[in-house]
Queue: 3 jobs
Job 1
Amino acid sequence: MSSFDEIRNNRIQKVEALKKAGVSVYPVNSARDHSLAEAVSDFDTISGGKKSVHLCGRIMSLRPQGALVFFTLDDGTGRFQGLIKKGEIDEKQYELFATMTDIGDFIEVYGPLFVTARGEKSIQVLAWKMLSKSLRPLPEKWHGLQDADERFRKRYLDTLMSPEVKARFLMRSRIIAELRSHFDKKDYLEVETPMLQPLSGGASAEPFVTHHNALDMDLFLRIAPELYLKKLLIGGFPKVYEINRNFRNEGIDMTHNPEFTMLEFYESFSNASEQMIFTEKMLKGIVKKLLGKTSFEFDGQAIDFKKKFATISYSDLLKRYALVSNPETISLEDARAKAMQLGVKVDPTDPAQKIIDNIYKKTCRPKIIQPTFVIDYPTANFPLAKKKEGNDAIAEVFQFVVCGIELVKGFSELNDPLDQRARFEAQEENKKLGDAEAQTTDEEFIEAMEYGMPPAGGVGIGIDRLVMLLTNTKNIKEVILFPTMRNK
């Protein structure tokens, strides 16, 4: 029998012994009247009244010292020391505590607060109660979970044993709350759009497919909410936003997870240029509010959010770093040759602009360290964006890149239903040639556009990547509580 099995069996025996002693091991009720954080912050008031209180938490350490047992409780809000002393508590209760409790158990303790000779705020236990007996030992205190794969699979232990990991997810929650507050103050309406969609649209990505039995129809987990949010602009809601999940059936790497969180927002009578200004101001405000400064470190680089964000065109980047002089008009043959030269993988079905974009992602984007807007992308890459006035080959699109990571994508939204149909038809041709990420013609969306869609600017922000940036984290799995993992 392994040492783990021995520990688990021993704890199960303790459960049986407690039950025989008349103890409810997993009771319904607890009498907690203060969180541990409150016990610390309100200590003087509570202890000054000399009244006894009920505190609850998980035992994180046990330190027997003769007739004394010191222990540490953690309830998720903070930690607090407890002391149980033989002779100052019912003898049976003392013996049960000394012999039946383990690190990992949840307990309730009752007694007055006091300060030890070493100056530590503590509770003198006059009575205690088992709330939940743990059967498995927690990871060793000083080393926690060392294997990254186990950390992601058992995030509950990762956050329990690592204050740094827990702090990262608290920061994630603060970032989302601050974004939501920002949009609410700007009179945007928060909405929810379907996760299950009859057509996968709003982005160029391969979807997950499922089947609804009652309707006997295939449905797609959404790859983006864009088309539904634009229908709301048509429906008379001038400013809308959504923070929710997207799903894309693609590879997993340092910045991609099949399930991820996006913020998308749309404003009628706006455009890409105005949304660039809005986005820059918003991101600078969030950095200042949450980090308390306008510069921070990411992966050893000092990142400056105080200066005006730089702007550079997509074609200039390709000319500078990939020596592609004509990215908008390059032939398929030349695009494949350049990809081979640069070691960029090409699928037989990839159109020229997709190959060029993969070249950009490998050779150009990693060079962008400081906050930068990349503008003037080929129209062929963005079937939902307006063409630049005077140049049909260029779309009114921007992406925000920092530390080589794309955080934001924004358009002047296409609102010409005839042009939209032609763009969808071009995408359908790519799909016939084998491009699984090509977009599908959405007749219901085109019908909605034909009723009249206002000019608009729309933006998507990858929440997970933003959290990576603001917590100096290099792997997207570190900022998603339960990332997608391969089966063991």
Note: Residues 299 and 472 are 6 Å apart (CA to CA).
Job 2
Amino acid sequence: MKAKSNVKMISASGGEIASRVQDVLRLLGEDPHREGLLATPRRWEHAMQFLTSGYKTSLPEVVNGALFSVKFDEMVLVKNIEFYSLCEHHLLPFFGKVHVAYLPKDKVIGLSKIPRLVDMFARRLQVQERLTQQIAEAITEAVSPRGVAVLCEAQHFCMMMRGVEKQHSGTVTSAMLGSFRKNKATRDEFLSLVGRT
């Protein structure tokens, strides 16, 4: 009897997503009323709202005016930015690290803003190729640099847990804009600094 009242309370306090997760659990052959699953729909809703919170964030909000005039025209590199995202094909996680570099022209961006930009795009339903390109384009839009380079290294649960089931596979994607695309020496310097040469 107590379990039933808990279910009603969770359903009442849960959102539309949570109520539909109960249906999914039933379709998978589970009992959404058993103790271990009573709060799962609401927990999953909260988790998904966090993991897709990038849809509610914009570039101006992330940058928040943190652009500074500095006489500096050498490479700025932020390495090993951890990220977690969800593959849009299976809604399974992929995760890894991103290296972001740019060549300033007139301004630099606050260093903490670069990982925040990565999170803004990672916390959406994604494919790694698009994620890499979006980060590069956002840095370009925010800073108007002479060039941007983004290298993303990731492991995908859709390849590790299902399908080909290759647990040690990894995927590397890159986006090179401006001087990083046109100038081999600049591109090679970046790749050397992130350990890819």
Note: The chain has nine helices and seven strands.
Job 3
Amino acid sequence: MVQSLLQMNTIFISIIIEALPFIVLGVFISAVIQMFVTEEMIAKVMPKNRFLSIAFGTGMGALFPACECGIVPITERLVRKNVPLSAAIAFMLTGPIINPVVIFSTFVAFGDSWKMALLRCGLAIFTAVLTAIAISYFFSENQLREFVEAKLHHHHGREVQHAPGFLQKITGTIDHAIDEFFSVGKFLVFGGLISAAMQTFFRTSTLLSLGQTKMAAILIMMLLAFIMSICSEADAFIASSFNGMFGTPAILAFLVFGAMVDIKNLLMMMHSFKRKFVFSMIGLIIVFVFTGAFLI
């Protein structure tokens, strides 16, 4: 038992040490954007056409290294600033995956190989674009915006802010980064512990026997990604530790699904958007991630 705990401790610490620099970088960039890039700037450059705006939203995620924990509030703010819903959702789904910090961390985690990082981006873009297009047909723009607005009026009084000066923005950035670091950090510790425990105490053979077929392996890894809820800046390090057990499709499904839907961002989405909308969107994501991973 002591031996197992020591082994678990080693795995846990290595996961944390590998992931921390990426999380620190992520929260800082996210905080800078929070303070210096206004939603008006984004709304101004957003194309009006449905498909162009989805493409734009998908690409915009590349510039915002927000982890999936930080991206839901940004998305809600975009919807409030009249960014088309489908574009905001495309942004929310790809943002945590195709940004430079996450691509680089995936590259490092898989032994400095580009294959996994590129496949991950490909599957993320495929899923986000199809989900956003489906959403643009199923949900009218205004009903979600009205919901977000109504929620805002419910908390009214907080929105009156004067434009802060440059120094205030700098201190705001640091405050924001520290806050986000601690909120993201506790999820990393939690995910790292579960992952280390699973790798120590779960017999590899059990996981392997459950994931015997390609379909089962993909579904198990998607479920694991949801339960472990690791930040996208760090999840590649955890995914790569499963590398011996599962094939590429299952690990890809873990990397893409976990960054789009996990316990912590489900809670945030339920807070930001209507339930029916959240569950419809998650259903679409499950179908597209599964299909995409299965075809790889």
Note: The CA atoms of residues 85 and 141 lie 6 Å apart.
